[in-house]
Amino acid sequence: MGQLEGKVAVVLGAAGKDNMGQTIARRFAREGAKVVVAGRKEEPLKALAAEIGGTWVLCDITRKADIEAMAKKALDSYGKVDVAVNATGWGLLVPLLETTEEQMDAIYALQFKGPHFFFQVFTEAMTHGGSVIQITSATTDRVIDNHAAYIGTKAGADALVRCFANEFGARGIKFNSIAPGITDSPMTEQAMATPGLLETFVKEYPLGRIGTSDDIADAAVWLAGDGSFITGQVLHVNGGLTLRRNPTGAEMGAAIAAASAKA
After folding, report:
1. Do 123 and 166 contact (CB within 8 A), yes or no?
2. Residue 104, exposed/middle/buried by CB under 10 A (0-12, 13-18, 19+)?
């Protein structure tokens, strides 16, 4: 029997091929959960739902009505919701003094307003307790250059996690964040292929490698299960990065230049 047998899970942010959301959805299904996958692109969601024997729904997290429709789809399909994962995000990289109002509005809607509504909606949908999981970032604790709008809004979502956990724990609903570091995934594949760049990150990870989406899925399964007596926390699943630091922009530039000179 799987660790999530009999549970119903919603995973938002699962429309990118082999991204973290898809990896979590596949793992949940292997552990016995019925899974609703959601995001903004129909075809990959339909394909994933067919693959894992679940269902799918379009959802833009910046629209509360979309989130409500997503929860309704899960309730109509399976009668309950036990687990809700928000794996959406936008890795905006812009210098502090160059971040525009339009960029700030967009990332605020995606990474702060959206999670707030996500937590609201699933608090109401989980009538018999459950687990809400927010994918956040180790950069909220170990900053990286040119990432301030991303870091600030992810940190804001972590604060919301604590507030919802405090207020709704009596209803048996757990709220937690998972904080990856740099993760080997389609989103980082191109950047990490830059000669010299990967090595500048790996040396800051005590366990000797960057993370994978499977590492995050393992943690999500534990948080989703009944055995995780934890709420209001940021679970740092990043190989010990918080014992050290992220490399600076200057260090990354120097490493890339040195690797190019050797080529």
Report:
1. no
2. middle
